[in-house]
Amino acid sequence: MMVLTYGDRSLLIEAETTDQAIGWTVAINEANLPGVVDVVPGARTVLVTTNGPGRTGALRAALERLTPTSGEARRDSTTVEVPVVYDGPDLDDIARLTGLSPDEVVTAHTSTPWQVAFGGFAPGFAYLIGGDPRLQVRRRDEARTKVPAGAVGLAGEFSGIYPRQSPGGWQLLGHTDLPMWDVDRDPPALLQPGTLVRFQSVS
After folding, report:
1. DSSP state of 85
2. Where does residue 86 rank: exposed (0-12), middle (13-18), buried (19+ CB within 10 A)?
3. Letter string b/e over residues 35-57, b meaning 16 or more CB atoms within 10 A of that residue's CB
4. Residue 70's pLDDT is what?
5. What is the spatial distance between Cα 154 and Cα 160, in angstroms, rounded to a whole number?
6. Distance CA 196, CA 39 (A)
7. Closest by alpha carbon to 46, among 73, 78, 23?
8. What's the mean pLDDT when you consider all of the chain?
9. pLDDT tens for residues 123-137?
10. Would you state the torsion angle of the CA atoms of residues 77, 83, 85, 86, taken in this order, to the nearest 10 degrees?
């Protein structure tokens, strides 16, 4: 990894892969490092913020003593089951792009556990990785102006669930009624980095 100074309170870890970034995020959160107030993962980075200036030297030394949590160790992490009605408007297009039948797309999406890599785009939106590689499809050529809350989609290596109505260009294969964001929940986001997600097909 490479650790860069990011202002006077933060360090930015540059990882080689998304999986490695998840591993660093889980390891840092589990270590409960003194003075750390926020850990924000990205696709290839992890931003670690302290509670004041002058603490980054001690933080850097602490990070050098850590190793990222392996994917095998993370298989024992919290699992969230997400019921999905696979009635998405792009299901047939996903089948065409992958060479699978619509039923095979659903089986592929539900058979392999996904893992939360990082959040972004909107509060409660989680980028999920690690699913069946056959489901890697490009974004839609033209984004929709309104994607309903709960829509489940695919884009590139990721799957995701829209937490609220918003524009979006992901390929939509179904929807869930499970709320992704709830301000009365602690934490408000249902899906946290490192969490395993299993999709379940329901009527």
Report:
1. B
2. buried
3. bbeebbbbeebbbbbbeeeebbe
4. 73
5. 7
6. 18
7. 23
8. 92
9. 999 999 999 999 999
10. 20
- Whether the per-residue pLDDT at 78 is higher than 90: the answer is no
Q: Is-above-0.85 flag for pTM? A: no
Percent of the chain with pLDDT over 90: 75
Check: CB of residue 173 under 8 Å from CB of residue 153.
yes
The whole-angstrom distance between residue 179's C-alpha and the CA centroid of its chain comes to 16
Is 86 within 8 Å of 106 (Cβ atoms)? yes
Tens digits of per-residue pLDDT, 1-32?
799 999 999 999 999 988 889 889 989 998 99
Which structure tokens are listed for 44? 């290839």
* Span 169-182, average pLDDT: 96
Bridge partners of residue 154, in order along the sequence: 159, 171
Query: How far is CA 76 from each of CA 11, 46, 48, 192, rounded to the nearest angstrom?
Result: 28, 22, 24, 14
Cβ-based neighbour number of residue 76 at 10 Å = 8
pLDDT of residue 51: 92
Burial of 187 (0-12, 13-18, 19+ CB in 10 A): exposed
CA angle at 135 for the pair 111 and 95, rounded to the nearest 5°:
100
Cα separation, 180 vs 53, in Å, equals 34
